[in-house]
């Protein structure tokens, strides 16, 4: 009898506790929210963040303020967001693909843990990449480039915006899938890399479509293939890697909104619901696509977390197989 009574009382306490917890956050948000963008104003992450912040603020009924915390390839902003109070008033606009590779290559050096210190709210979109070559390169298609590389190992140089960048990882995956060997030339950022590519100091690069399209359209670079399954609207005449026979070369740069790990579940759900409405807006989808970003179908926090873990596992395997380090 006592055990039965105890169980009933315990059940009542649990229900009351859960109800109290839900009610405690029913009024969220009650003040402006800070969205940390870990890069300077004007870049892709900043543009995406401002589009999202504007509409998210409308959905939540509170202003969402973009705060640029640039430095150390996005790690300064990420660390600041990870260590902020887990109350839903500090969020991070994360470059999830780059953060995933950095978490592997710079393990033990970062002062935050991507998978442990953050709760994904939602993956909001992705930016496709494109294989571009200098005009001095004679290959007119990805197949021709691969055929040349097979006959001439390490004769084709490729630029990247840094050892842990998505541009570098895409080129490593190309080498793996095509069974070729290229010469890596790392730069400190896409700007210098693209300058040298246009100038012919390096032969090729796999760059984001938004960053490369103006050079392609002006004839300064030649686009050979996009690294996503279907052609993209910004470069409609450029074939896919799949069309060149590389069925598994599917690489894009993923972006998402993250919160500190201990953020209460009702707050996470509220943010997720609001972001789903934002991404469902035709206006937002159009604004993002003009920047080369393809809005993702809204997903739950658990689905977004699974995507982030999958991204981490994918690059961890490639980095291990290719013996990539932060220094090479």
UniProtKB/TrEMBL annotation:
Task: Give the SUPFAM superfamilies listed for this entry.
Answer: Periplasmic binding protein-like II
**What protein family does this chain belong to?**
Belongs to the UPF0065 (bug) family.
What superkingdom heads the lineage?
Bacteria
**Could you identify this protein by its name?**
Extra-cytoplasmic solute receptor
Say yes or no: keyword Cell membrane present. Answer: no
Enumerate the Pfam families for this protein: TctC
Keyword list (alphabetical) reads: Plasmid, Signal
Q: Where is the signal peptide?
A: 1-26
Gene3D superfamilies the UniProt entry points to? Bordetella uptake gene, domain 1 (3.40.190.150), Periplasmic binding protein-like II (3.40.190.10)
Q: InterPro entries under this entry?
A: BUG, Bug_dom1
Q: Does this entry carry the keyword Signal?
A: yes
Which organism does this sequence originate in?
Cupriavidus necator (strain ATCC 43291 / DSM 13513 / CCUG 52238 / LMG 8453 / N-1) (Ralstonia eutropha)
